[in-house]
Amino acid sequence: MQEGDSSADASTEDSASTSYASSEKKGTNEKLDSVTEPKKLGLKSLFATPTMTKITLIMWVNWIVVTIGYYGISLGIGDVGSDVFINFLLVGT
Questions:
Q1: Span 66-74, average pLDDT
Q2: Fewest CB atoms less than 10 Å from the CB: which of 36, 65, 72, 80?
């Protein structure tokens, strides 16, 4: 009788664990599906709100200013000093 009882218990545990595993997988897949679907963003999204428009324009102006500043410094670096090592030291800082 113990053998019959243990096999019945084992089949009950198997079906319970299988149904739990399948429900767990469904929940996991639903979460993964919602995570893996990225929003479609474009140039229009940078100007969607007034705050994003302000940040976008500030960053654009900053990029231009830094680029022109770096270009000007790199053109005038030859006139900084007469020693190659001092020039290297000044450019590195």
A1: 88
A2: 36
Q: Which residues contact 80 (CB under 8 A, 6 or more apart)?
A: 86, 87, 90
For every residue of 58-75, DSSP letters joined together read: HHHHHHHHHHHHHHHHHH
What is this structure's pTM?
A: 0.47
DSSP class of residue 37 equals S
Q: Where are the domains of the chain?
A: 1-37, 41-93
With contact defined as beta carbons under 8 Å apart, do 18 and 10 qualify? no
Whether the Cβ atoms of residue 87 and residue 77 lie closer than 8 Å to each other: yes
